[in-house]
Amino acid sequence: APAAGAAAAPAAEEKTEFNVVLKDVGAKKIDVIKVVRGFTGLGLVEAKAAVEKGGVLKENVAKEEAEKIVAELKAAGATAAME
Questions:
Q1: What proportion of the chain, given as a percentage, has pLDDT over 90?
Q2: Residues in contact with 31: Cβ distance below 8 Å, sequence separation at least 6, in sequence order
Q3: Which of 40, 54, 59, 69 is the most exposed, fewest CB within 10 Å of its CB?
Q4: Taking the C-alpha atoms of 13, 14, 16 and 21 in order, what is their torsion angle to the nearest 10 degrees?
Q5: How large is the greatest C-alpha to C-alpha distance in the chain, in angstroms?
Q6: How far apart are CA 26 and CA 15, in angstroms?
Q7: Cα distance between residue 30 and residue 7, in whole Å
Q8: Which pLDDT score is estimated for 70?
Q9: Count of C-beta atoms within a 10 Å radius of residue 74
Q10: How far apart are CA 48 and CA 21, in angstroms?
């Protein structure tokens, strides 16, 4: 019985929402800005500012969407993560 309780605890703690965090822009800043504009709906100036600032780009995103965004950012040459 204790093993069943221990197995259920990690499942209850599993995250369902993530923040997409930009760690580093990389060499292709323009491509990264385009990707950020695509998933945030920001204008050019706002997206450029967000990319230059770095940090959290989108908060409380479903796991599948966060993985997709991180993959797009990495394809554009950025370093990004889900937290």
A1: 78
A2: 76, 77
A3: 59
A4: 100
A5: 57
A6: 28
A7: 45
A8: 93
A9: 15
A10: 15
3-state SS, one letter per residue, for 35-78: HHHHHHCCCHHHHHHHHHHCEEEEEEEEHHHHHHHHHHHHHCCC
The reported pTM is 0.79
Encoded amino acid at 75, one letter: A
pLDDT tens for each residue of 18-50 = 999 999 999 999 999 999 999 999 999 999 999
- Smallest CA-to-CA distance from 80 within 58, 64, 62 is with 58
CB 54 within 8 A of CB 19: no
49/38 Cα distance (integer angstroms): 15
